[in-house]
Amino acid sequence: MADIAIKVEGLGKEYILGHKKSGDLRNAFGDRLNRLFKGSDQNKESFWALKDVSFEIKKGEAVGIIGRNGAGKSTLLKILSRITEPTKGRFEINGRVSSLLEVGTGFHMELTGRENIFLNGTILGMKRAEIKQKFDEIVEFSGVEKFLDTPVKHYSSGMKVRLAFSVAAHLEPEILIVDEVLAVGDAEFQKKCLGKMDEVSKNDGRTILFVSHNLAAVNQLCNSGILLRQGNVTCQGEAQKIVHQYISYNKQIETGMGLINLELRKGSLEYQVDSIEIFSESMQSIKIAKTGEPLVFEILLNKKVASKGVRLDFAIDTEHDMRIGWFSSSVIDHELNAEFDKIYLKIPKLCLGGGLYYLTFYFTTNGELTDFIHQGFAFEVEEGDYFGTGKTIPKNQTFIYQSHEIFSN
User: Fold this and answer.
1) What pTM, to 2 d.p., does this model score?
2) With pLDDT > 90 as the criterion, what percentage of the chain qualifies?
3) Domains of the chain by range and CATH?
């Protein structure tokens, strides 16, 4: 156990969900009688955010925790930060913990930035002299020196994150826990934060738990990873392998794959997207799209729908969860046929570079959400001759090809 920073055994967290009925007098009276005579609320059900989670993290490891929204990542970090109590199971932490889970974590909003730095250090068990020794470094890194004597409640979200991360990273905790909150900051500061976490992990031997949807950042910072799915640990191991496993799990390249039972879809589901297939311009079914060539998505619905009041939005994301394309029937003012059960999205010249991409669709009828699936279909793009010159843009330089001219007078 001497080299173990965190040990988790059979951890579970249950939440009770309430379901409200209509607010008329009869239902209110009935609910009161149920509570009086049955001793419970019949309109509640349980939800397990975490189920039987077990793992060990060694001292000095930088661990990325990844998974789709609702997988239980934030719940796990709140338990390890002792913000939330687990329903079952146990965990052991060997070392002083500093957490950055949401904007302003650990701050007293009425106190100034200066006072909060000393407050956080005291909570971590540091002496005033130790905090003063680190004070200038914290302030310089955060970039909020002009506002040090202003109450934190007047800070912007970005300023709170900058100061909170600076405090958490510089006051020498043995274990640093960071949630997706860094996404609030600007790109330059995010880069600084990743650099600082990399430094304290590799040079100072501190343990880091990092939750992020930015898979490139996880690969850059972490040497190991944990993949969560619906509250369970799916796998744990080398970071790059875990990221690949996550991408593979989401990957749905098989042509015509059914989507009816896909998890996490939202809406009334009166009309559902049954399957998606990709075609060439001549409507030949293809498995892989190609840069610079036409591409057609065929979206098959479970039943016919009248076009009146229908809106269809499509978005394209990279495998690292970056939104790079958006298409909508409402923007181009295109009238659909009177009745249909197939939808076609045609891209005349595909400007995406080689790689894996996800299609999100958003379908409404008469203003009501009918079907929505975030990244419900994946497709692969092969690098092609977009410019007609036989040359391509170097790999990893861009996701998007753009027609352009370069000339001089």
Assistant:
1) 0.58
2) 25
3) 4-250 (3.40.50.300), 273-382 (2.70.50.60)
